[in-house]
Design a protein that fits this description.
The protein is α+β, with helices and mostly antiparallel strands and 185 residues long. 29% of the residues lie in helices and 36% in strands. Strand 3 and strand 4 (79-88) form a beta hairpin. Helix 1 packs across helix 2 (50-65). The longest helix has 16 residues, at 50-65.
């Protein structure tokens, strides 16, 4: 099991670690807190149940064992503050993996997200054989995330106008790709 100590910009000590089967309840609390935010930046819009979170966790652990995915959680003093995963796409897209990240508010703006993404990308390169690209989508209003992705080497390759509904407003979704040949640690 991967465990990576990390010190945030403000001195907070966290651990990036792989998920365990007994993490479901904490993961549910974490993701629901992000879902509850206005303009959270994630695609999920309905709170998850413990049953749904257990099913997702079982699936991701199975994918990790098959080496089709990696997943790292951010843990601080026993609390899960974030998650980043990369999962191989299927069929003719199997040379690509989709990557996604989410952090609770109190973990943002401290360098934790960048550290977590770097660790996840490194782990994906080592574990998911044959991937050449990572891709993600982000919403036009999530400028902080876009800046992070560009700093990591992701390039915007597309835009879907009015793809995301937040309340009464529609926002574009930006598609971004990282060519792993250009990955710089």
């Amino acid at each position: 099991m991967v465990r990576i100590p990390f010190v945030a910009d403000d001195g907070t000590q966290v651990t990036f670690r792989e998920p365990r089967a007994d993490d479901a309840r904490q993961l549910m609390r974490f993701i629901n807190s992000v879902i509850d935010e206005d303009m959270s930046g994630i695609v999920m819009d309905k709170r998850v149940t413990l049953k749904a979170e257990k099913a997702w966790l079982d699936d991701i652990i199975r994918m990790i064992r098959r080496r089709d995915a990696v997943d790292l959680l951010v843990e601080c003093e026993g609390e899960i503050l974030g998650n980043c995963d990369a999962a191989r796409r299927r069929m003719k897209h199997s040379h690509r993996a989709a990557i996604g990240i989410a952090l609770v508010k109190k973990a943002r703006g401290k360098g934790i997200g960048e550290g977590l993404m770097r660790a996840t990308i490194d782990l994906a390169i080592r574990r998911i054989k044959g991937i050449e690209f990572l891709d993600l989508s982000t919403f036009e209003y999530n400028r902080r995330a876009q800046r992070l992705y560009r700093n990591l080497g992701f390039a915007k390759v597309g835009n879907i106008p009015k793809a995301v509904r937040e309340g009464d407003f529609l926002y574009s979704e930006h598609l971004m790709v990282l060519d792993l040949k250009n990955w710089r640690r």
